[in-house]
Amino acid sequence: MRASLIQIAVNEGESVDSRRSRVAELVREQAGCDLVVLPELWTVGAFAYEQFETEAEPLDGPTYAAMSGAARDAGVWLHAGSVVERAGDGSLYNTALVLSPDGELAATYRKIHRFGFDQGEAVLMSAGDSLTTVELPEQTLGIATCYDLRFPEMFRGLVDAGATTMVVAAGWPARRRAHWTLLSRARAVEDQSYVLACGLAGTHAGVEQAGHSLVVDPWGEVLAEAGPGEDVLTVDLDPAKVPDTRAQFPALKDRVLGLRPPARR
Ligand SMILES: O=C(O)CCC(=O)C(=O)O
User: Fold this and answer.
1) Could you say which of 98, 103, 160, 221 would form a disulfide bridge with 107 (CB–CB 3.0 to 4.6 Å)?
2) Can you tell me the mean pLDDT for 75-101?
3) Cβ atoms of residues 233 and 215 within 8 Å
4) If you take atom 1 of ligand 1, which residue's CA is the nearest one?
5) Does residue 176's CB lie within 6 angstroms of at least one atom of ligand 1?
6) Is 33 marked active-site?
7) From 33, 55, 85, 111, active-site residue
């Protein structure tokens, strides 16, 4: 199974429309891959809070339209990153879209852990409350977005739902790049899963992005890592490696759930 992660540079000066057209071409260039992954909020920019209202779109909006055609032309499964979704009741969500090779919307995921500590996304967006997995012919994708990477219990929920490859679309700031790499590897090791972590590059709204997207195998080895700028990572994954790792080193079987809190004395 061949996967490509497209680490998109979002810089001031490029309109959302021209970026959409440019990215659609980049997706088309990945024909021959099985899966293509894009970053979080690559249309508007993950930190461009003042544009969230104006660039919000319904699930079948302009990003879906552009990505649907690109997925179909390339014949790939496409995790199209996330968009600012305007829901029917007017509220906004940070919503990931997964398209099948015929361009249909196969799954959506509304980001559960909003970033900002009572500012930015955390106040502008509503929170999702459901996990999303996507069945591909040889693997099950577990979908997560950026700040979610810090919450291992969410990934354990994805493992329990059958996920074998975690796909993390992000707009991770350069300032905490070390956390990005460390947490991507930690999720791979503890969940004995592939992790495809695809971030933004460039600088928007004054926030330099980390880039350095990476693909980690279920043993925690980094199979490929991007540089700081716009980049495409193409990696061959062996779906058998997940069950093999889980069988050879069956730590997931030793989980103890429902521990009692410490006794009060
Ligand atoms: O957790 C972090 O350091 C970055 C999270 C983030 O930027 C986001 O979720 O948009």
Assistant:
1) 98
2) 98
3) yes
4) 147
5) yes
6) no
7) 111
Nearest ligand 1 atom to alpha carbon 149: 1
Q: What is the pLDDT of residues 169-200, one digit of tens each?
A: 999 999 999 999 999 999 999 999 999 999 99
Q: Is the CB of 241 under 6 A from ligand 1?
A: no
Domain limits of the chain?
2-249
Pick the residue whose CA is nearest to atom 9 on ligand 1. 147
**For residue 144, what are its two tokens?**
């997560």
User: Catalytic annotation on 198?
Assistant: no
Q: Is the CB of 180 under 6 A from ligand 1?
A: no
CATH class of 2-249: alpha beta
Does ipTM surpass 0.90 in this model?
Answer: yes
